[in-house]
Each structure stands twice: as C-alpha cells, then as structure tokens.
Amino acid sequence: KAGVTQTPRYLIKTRGQQVTLSCSPISGHRSVSWYQQTPGQGLQFLFEYFSETQRNKGNFPGRFSGRQFSNSRSEMNVSTLELGDSALYLCASSLGRVGYGYTFGSGTRLTVV
Amino acid sequence: KNQVEQSPQSLIILEGKNCTLQCNYTVSPFSNLRWYKQDTGRGPVSLTIMTFSENTKSNGRYTATLDADTKQSSLHITASQLSDSASYICVVSAGNYGQNFVFGPGTRLSVLP
Known about the structure:
The complex is a heterodimer of chains A (113) and B (113).
Chain A: E1 5-7, E2 10-13, E3 19-24, E4 31-38, E5 42-50, E6 53-57, E7 64-68, E8 74-78, E9 87-94, E10 103-104, E11 108-112
Parallel strand pairs in A: 2-11
Antiparallel strand pairs in A: 1-3, 3-8, 4-5, 4-9, 5-6, 7-8, 9-10, 9-11
Chain B: E1 3-7, E2 10-14, E3 19-26, E4 30-38, E5 45-51, E6 56-59, E7 62-67, E8 72-77, E9 86-94, E10 100-103, E11 107-112
Parallel strand pairs in B: 2-11
Antiparallel strand pairs in B: 1-3, 3-8, 4-5, 4-9, 6-7, 7-8, 9-10, 9-11
C-alpha cells in the first residue's frame, strides 16, 4: 500500500512570503501530525489532526497553522516566513490510537532566503 | 519537564560489529517508547514500539529494551551493516492516548567498511 506522500519535496521561498505544504496519509489513517526538523533543534512537534480536528499542538507561533480535510489529507501553512523556518518538515500518519505506530513521509525541505 | 536524552551523540563502528545506543527519559505519564531510524534527507522509519509492560522487542538485527523503573531504553544493533549508517531517534509518547511526543536528539551512527 502507498506510504505517506508529502509535496513538494523541495521548496525555496523568500523571507516574508507564505507557504503551504501537503501531506497525504496512508489510506485508512485518520491521524496526521506535523514536525519540524533542524540540525540545531532536532525533531519538534508542530501539531496533530485527527478526523479534521486539531487535537494536539506544540509550542510554535501562530504563523504555523494546519488543517485536515475529510479525506484525511492535511496541509500545513507558514505565513510571514523567517530565515529560521528553513527546515525539513515531516508529516506522519497513524490510525490515531494508543500503541499504533506513526509512519513518516520523506518530508519537504524548505529553504527561506 | 518532559525530556529525552540519548547517548552517545555519535558513534563510529566497523561493519560486522555490534553496538548499543542509549535513551533516558523523564516523561510523564508514559504511554510508549519508539525507536526510529532516519537516513539523511529522509523521514524516520519505525524500528520498534514498546509499551509500559514490554521490556524487549526485536526487529531483525535490532533489539530494543525498556526498563520502565529506571526510565531507560537501549537499542542494540547486531552484526552491523553499512546500511545501518543513519540517525537513531528515541521518541517517548506521553498522555492518555500517547498524543504528546518527546523526541530525543538522536544518535548518529556511522558504519565503516
């Protein structure tokens, strides 16, 4: 079965712009979570969506937002980009129940110049 | 404060040798602990997931242990291969349904021929 698909794979944006990243989960998975990975900070949790509702949120500013559609696909939006937003953005999907694993996508490499 | 520490930060071993990576955590309430392998530029791939009642789990040449009393976990890699070169990330889930993820900084493993 298909894995978690993230698009685009690479993105270059200018400071001040906004960006939208997409994540298609594994079929049947209702939970999608987003993470930011940088060399300095490692993996950091952004937020998780389950059945179109955000049920958990990390400590990121309001410039980072997301949503989930009825088909479980999710988008993440970052507004007013800053140089420090350059990172690998990963999404993971899961059935959303305790003990079930999370399958990660390959990520979107965002570079802000 | 919920925290996950990993040691060593990096490790270099020769092909065919065994190695053990460590993970110490202070996370409450504990839900489960996962080990992920992440190749450079790719998303993490799940190796093992353990709940409170499990103290060992194997996945091929990877064996994870969990001591919930001392809040320590280890990942043992047997007969290392060049393809084992990657970052290994320990992730502890907290909360009633494991919705809060606390990531370790990872151990960078390099396997040399």
